[in-house]
Design a protein that fits this description.
It is a single chain. With 215 residues, this protein is mainly beta. It has 2 domains: 8-85, Elongation Factor Tu (Ef-tu), domain 3; 104-188, Elongation Factor Tu (Ef-tu), domain 3 (Beta Barrel), CATH 2.40.30. The protein contains 5 helices and 12 strands. The chain has helices at residues 64-69, 126-129, 161-165, 184-192, 206-211, and strands at residues 8-18, 21-27, 40-43, 46-54, 57-62, 80-85, 104-114, 117-123, 137-140, 143-151, 154-159, 177-182. The strands form 2 sheets. Strands 1-2-5-4-3-6 form a 6-stranded antiparallel barrel. A hairpin with a 2-residue loop joins strand 7 (104-114) and strand 8 (117-123).
């Protein structure tokens, strides 16, 4: 579990593919002595397991699913990536609940500067856009952000200067592809609505929300 508050920007040393899977090695300023083999680190919003470390670098095994859906195949030596260690129960939840399981990718359609802030617009499929609401949360390459506006095939976010400089977002340009993770609450609620996988007779109700732990 993560918060979407990036701790470091790492640099890709190599991505080696072994059949449909891969091994990713990233240099980082994160304290290596505090990171244990087997623990989880979010890399551009994807939850990966540390399988080796040393020399200021961390190595991760990348599953075929992550290579295919999370855009890792586009990474090259020198690519910058957002890194976040897993949430500790004693930490403040400054962002929102991020699982590290990418739902889809989106393409940057536009970027403009407004009073020192950066406004990005993204293209996304209509099927995926249904999970977004204005002023709701979304994770973009692992960064917890607030949605400004939503359209049938896209959305916008406003990036403050601090967030831009402390993440890879300041490197992003129109045409770049980013990982998207929707707010997990939206996906759970969808399953409870009429027509969802777990819908019941009578549809969504206060009683059903209470029974399933939302109230």
């Amino acid at each position: 579990m993560f918060t979407g508050l990036i701790e470091d920007i790492g640099t890709v040393l190599r991505l080696e593919q072994h059949g449909a899977a891969g091994r990713l090695e990233v240099t980082t300023g994160l304290p290596g002595d505090e990171i244990k083999l087997g623990e989880s680190v979010a890399v551009n919003g994807v939850c990966l397991t540390v399988v080796a470390k040393g020399g200021g670098a961390l190595s991760f095994d990348v599953s075929p699913e992550s290579l295919k859906t999370a855009g890792f195949a586009r990474l090259r030596p020198g690519s910058r990536v957002n890194l976040e260690r897993a949430l500790r129960l004693s930490d403040r939840l400054g962002g929102h609940i991020v699982t590290g399981h990418v739902d889809c990718t989106a393409t940057i359609a536009g970027r403009r500067e407004i009073s020192g802030n950066t406004v990005f617009s993204f293209n996304i499929s209509q099927a995926d856009a249904r999970y977004l609401v204005s002023k709701g949360s979304v994770a973009i390459d692992g960064v917890s952000l607030t949605v400004n506006e939503v359209s049938p095939n896209g959305f916008t976010v406003n990036i403050i200067p601090h967030t831009s400089l402390e993440t890879t977002l300041h490197l992003m340009r129109p045409g770049d592809v980013v990982n998207i993770e929707f707010d997990i609450l939206a996906k759970y609620v969808e399953r409870l609505l009429p027509g969802g996988e777990t819908s019941r007779k009578g549809g969504l109700s206060l009683e059903l929300l209470a029974e399933t732990g939302f109230l």
